[in-house]
């Protein structure tokens, strides 16, 4: 399917970027703008500067007021359906894995899996910092002076650092204002996230992860949901699906081998979750990627 010059196979949006640079900014002023459910590996920021904007991510509606910032995690399914709503909004997309020249992006992975709405109401200081970075991004992208791509890289990583630090220092996750307890809880949460990143390909459980972090299962489940906006099983399966995508594209493995490596102990479970999150079966996804590569060549 081709929508607004973009190609969607199943639910996967192809050919977002040019061959030269994995970054794109689109200024959208349409009063009527419909873009069906889709997903992509790229991270996306939505920044309306005139009039509110509404989008849907993972079946959750987000009302984005003027100058609010919606951070959409790579892999999250989203859509746009705007009618009679003239305005001016920016769509900013970038592929962080391609921009990662230092090989350190794995440290940010837990924080890049969280779709978040940032506004002056829910976090004025973070919003101010992010808005400054976005403003510089737009200026650099439009003017394209010498070295603009290096400047865009710097802005991307500044944004990722701001978001990850804010999550680790989120006071709303705490039941006590005691400073020592705050740092203790944040350190434990970081241990839990790192444990998931290192072990999601194995048959880990909520108890395994809460034990690794030194939490009770109940307390960990509550804090984890508050921090990520996702329950434990959904988050772990999302990481497994993203691993499976890479294996499908880069390796010639059987479905049994691929499911086991990605962390699924059942082919039926793997196929069901993959189709539910990606809108197609694993083999259909692989064929779409192969067709896309042929088109590029």
Structure in words:
The chain is of the alpha+beta class and 297 residues long. It folds into three domains: 2-168, Sandwich (Jelly Rolls); 171-229; 234-296, Arc Repressor Mutant, subunit A. It contains eleven helices and twelve strands. The chain has helices spanning 96-99, 109-112, 124-143, 148-168, 179-199, 206-213, 217-228, 232-250, 255-262, 267-278, 282-296, and strands spanning 2-3, 6-9, 12-14, 23-28, 33-38, 43-50, 53-57, 60-64, 69-72, 78-82, 88-94, 116-118. The strands form three sheets. The protein has a five-stranded antiparallel sheet with strand order 4-11-6-9-12, with helices on one face. The longest helix has 21 residues, at 148-168. The chain is globular, with a radius of gyration of 20 Å. The two termini are 20 Å apart. 29% of the residues are buried.
Q: Please identify the top-level CATH class of the largest domain.
A: Mainly Beta
- Uncertain regions: pLDDT < 50 for 5+ in a row? 171-180
Helix and strand content put the structural class at: alpha+beta
In CATH terms, the superfamily of the largest domain is Regulatory protein AraC
Rg on CA atoms, Å: 20 Å
Q: Overall 3D geometry?
A: globular
Helix content: 40-55%
Percent of residues in beta strands? 15-25%
Overall number of structural domains? 3
The CATH topology assignment of the largest domain is: Jelly Rolls
Q: Looking across the biggest beta sheet, what order are the strands in?
A: 4-11-6-9-12
